[in-house]
Amino acid sequence: MTIDQVDVWNPANTGVRLFVAEASLLAEVFKEDPGVGRVADDELQIDGWRFASFLSRRMSEYERSNNGALRALMEGFLAVSLVMLLRAKHPLAEFTRDPGKFWRQRIAEVGRGMPV
């Protein structure tokens, strides 16, 4: 997968299909384009600015929610997405403050399982 032509993750086919499906579902639920393209020739292109904007709003939803089930459902997608944006060295619209211990640990943990 690439964000603005920067390689950020080389998942197995199942991983990329699941990521695209989750992005599509969140896009449908929140009525917003995530900037995630279609898989073509084992490649997935992501529009960095659109994706960062989408992720920023999902992070805000996550942080405001006191619904544990909703937070749990969103957490995996958010963690994978944050790893990818950080690898692309992409500025995050509203994630510029310290993400806190929880997200720093999740980003490190998830990132170890995401080969480039």
Structure in words:
It is a single chain. With 116 residues, this protein is mainly alpha-helical. It has one domain. 59% of the residues lie in helices and 5% in strands. It contains four helices and three strands, in the order ββαβααα. It has helices at 13-30, 48-64, 68-87, 100-112; strands at 2-3, 6-7, 45-46. The chain has a three-stranded mixed β-sheet with strand order 2-1-3. α2 (48-64) runs antiparallel to α3 and α3 crosses α4. It is globular, with a radius of gyration of 13 Å. The protein starts with a strand and ends with a helix. InterPro entries: DUF6086. It holds the Pfam family DUF6086.
Can you summarize this structure?
By secondary structure, the protein is mainly alpha-helical. Helix content is 59%, strand content 5%. The protein starts with a strand and ends with a helix.
Our count of domains comes out at: 1
The proportion of residues in beta strands is 5-15%
- What's the N-to-C terminus distance? 8 Å
The order of strands across the largest sheet is 2-1-3
Average pLDDT, rounded to a whole number, is: 90
Instruction: Kindly name the structural category.
Output: mainly alpha
> What's the number of extended β-strand segments?
3
Q: Give the overall shape, derived from the CA principal axes.
A: globular
Query: Tally the helices: what do you get?
Result: 4
- Can you tell me the residue ranges where pLDDT is under 50 for at least 5 consecutive residues? none
Sheet having the most strands: 3 strands, mixed
Helix content: 55-70%
Computed CA radius of gyration, to the nearest angstrom: 13 Å
Element pattern in H and E: EEHEHHH
